[in-house]
Amino acid sequence: MADAVVQSLTEGVITPQRICDEALNLCSSPTIEEFNGDAFVKRLMDSKPTKIQSNDFVNGLYKQIKEDTHPRKTVRSIHFSDPHIDFYYREGMEALCDYPICCRNNGIFEPQGADIKRAAGKWGDYNCDVPKETLKGMFDYIAQNQDTLKSDFIIWTGDNSAHNVWDNTAEEITDYTPLNYSDAKDSFSDANVSIPVFPIQGNHDTWPVNVQDFSTPNSNYAINHLKDSWTSEGWLTEDEYTEFQQYGYYTKPLPFNSKGKVIAVNMQACNNMNWWLFANRNDPGGEIAWLEAQLSQIEQDEGFALVIAHIPSRDCLHEFGLRFHALMDRYQHIVRYSSYGHTHSEEIFLTMGMNSTDPIGFNFLSGSVTSGDSRNPGFSMVEYDEEFMVPLNIHTYYMNLTEANANPSAPLEWNELHDYLDEYRLPDLSPSSIKDLTQRMYDNADLAGLYEYNKAKGGRPYKPGQEHDKSFLCLQGSETFEVKDCFGQPHINLKSKNPTDIFEFLTQYWIKVDN
Fold this sequence. Notes:
Blueprint: H1 2-10, H2 16-23, E1 31-35, H3 38-46, H4 57-67, E2 74-80, H5 132-144, H6 146-149, E3 153-156, H7 170-190, E4 197-199, H8 221-224, H9 227-231, H10 238-247, E5 250-253, E6 260-265, H11 287-300, E7 304-309, H12 318-330, E8 335-340, E9 347-352, E10 359-365, E11 378-385, E12 391-398, H13 401-406, E13 415-419, H14 420-423, H15 431-443, H16 445-455, H17 470-473, H18 480-487, H19 499-507, E14 510-514
Parallel strand pairs: 2-3, 3-4, 6-7, 7-8, 8-10
Antiparallel strand pairs: 1-14, 2-11, 5-6, 9-10, 11-12, 12-13
């Protein structure tokens, strides 16, 4: 990790030329031109079609669905994220250790016998990553229960490896992904089912963790070694993988609707812990330009898209996040729904119109499979209107880890915890209804507590929330500065302990360097 930090700094913000020109304005060469995003946003907003000027296109689709008196076809997806299986998980090891990761043999000082405060269970522990058997049990359940789940496709939003980031290697973290995909393949094959999978890697799926250099295409070890896993089962075609191999993003058509595409975005390009972004300061990997081109083409084709990514857009660095937000506004009639992971919590947030209070898009984070930080393993089942591909309902499935470990010889049980319409008394999942939900959670401590309980899928005891907790109103934001504005915080606060502030201070605007 230190090597990546030092090299990215010396090739980025602290080169003599950058200090001389960008910081001190003393040198005539190289010429450094700053791009602060405002012109990009203005260009997109000026080109908005008339039909979306009112920022209610997606809300209008829900209105059409409600007014349709005929039965409408639906499709379903499974969405899961953050398995974080641990190759070295060992039942019976200390779960409350003094190391960064527990439930494994951490060496000569590892507690043994009577010294163990809490022994790791067969299926996991609330303080650890999970054994591979837990993920395989989830795959088995999904494959064997297609009579009720009726899955048309699967969204897999990354982070397959364990959290031993201080001593893992590129080879180790790359080994996790093929094993996970092999287990999925075996489960589906044994049940004689075939379900298309749309994968995207997470920040723990490249090495070092969080780090990816976007200066050269086809240069990332982990991304280059995903091919066998992602193409052998037809999850990506050769052409799609060739696109992915460049920088880690791709598009793929939906199998049941020729108008629809999944756009898989690599959020390492905006990760606030990706030190290579000190050196890659102008649209890393050309991803924003690529995303705009994809959305523009889909618009010309009169199609629609689902966006999948690992890191939520609201956690992105500002310069990327601002442009991403502008694209979501300009193409709000194209992007019908967005799926993320990363936080390990089941969460929601809204995309609002640029500089407006109009809700234009709904974003969902599926809770993790891993059980660390007191979470039950689980996944989400999303039901969509087939014609418009907007979500109609979200069902959360979970495995009660306490009960499973108490009966280690019994088959794993996965049960539905809740569905969004019933749990939160929602008429639909339109952006307007979700905005109303955020306001109700702000006003109602019991509802706020229910949302917090569901974030961990029942892994923590229920307790009432805090009335008028502003964090619920700030779910009406999809970009980091927008969220900070909601909380009344400065955009950059060097007194904070948040690494994003340091990153934003050091990089500021995107730049173009002419030698």
